[in-house]
Structure formats: structure tokens, C-alpha cells
Write a structure and sequence with these properties.
Length: 125
């Protein structure tokens, strides 16, 4: 009887190892699928950002062209460093900037803040 019980125990252990191995393989496959989905999501987000940037740049160019013949003193620009739309009021006679929104100091502050945040919370690091 002892021999039969040993054989039974060995077959159960073998089945348990096979089940664990299969479970680990399934889990590994699931992890790989999830990581692929996350990678695809990141790629899509980057594409969406780039698409949005291009659209904003196109719109600002169209606004500037539309206001140009009217001799208006508004100039629209897109700042790539902070991803913001800027508006300048310009004197048409001497091309001097009268007012800008957001102010130059605020833009510089935003650029530095983004740089500092990037250093502190770098995703790669």
C-alpha cells in the first residue's frame, strides 16, 4: 500500500506543478498583454498631442492671416515650450508690443516651473 500511496502523491505533485506552470504562463501572457495595451495607449496620447499642436498652430496662422488685411494690432502665437496660445497687441506703425497675454514674465516663470517639475518627477528616472 505504501508504494501506491507514494505513486499517488507523486502524480498529485506533478499535476500541481503543471497547474502552477500553466497558471504562471497565463499570468505572464496577461501581463504582456496589459503592457502592450499601455504602450499603445501612450503612443496614441502622443499622437493626439502632436495632432492638437498642429491644429493649434494652423489655427493661429489662419487667425494672423485673417486679421492682417484689417491692419489689426493683434498677433497670435503658439508657445511650444509651455503649450500655450499667446496674444500680443502690437502698434502697427512701429511694431512695438503694447501688451501681451500672458505676460512675458509669466511665460518665463511657467517655463522654469515646467523644467523644475520635469526634473523632480521624471518618468524615466
Amino acid at each position: 500500500m505504501d508504494v501506491f500511496s507514494n505513486i499517488k502523491n507523486m502524480t498529485q505533485k506533478t499535476q500541481n506543478y503543471e497547474t502552477l506552470s500553466n497558471n504562471n504562463t497565463v499570468k505572464r501572457d496577461e501581463v504582456q498583454k496589459v503592457s502592450k495595451i499601455e504602450e499603445q495607449k501612450e503612443v496614441m496620447e502622443k499622437q493626439d498631442k502632436n495632432k492638437l499642436k498642429k491644429e493649434l498652430q494652423k489655427i493661429t496662422e489662419e487667425l494672423n492671416k485673417a486679421l492682417n488685411p484689417l491692419n489689426t494690432t493683434l498677433k497670435f502665437q503658439f508657445n511650444d515650450k509651455i503649450d500655450e496660445l499667446m496674444v500680443k497687441v502690437v502698434d502697427t506703425q512701429n511694431n512695438k508690443v503694447i501688451r501681451e497675454y500672458p505676460p512675458k514674465e509669466a511665460l518665463e516663470l511657467m517655463e522654469k516651473m515646467r523644467e523644475i517639475v520635469g526634473l523632480l518627477f521624471d518618468k524615466k528616472g
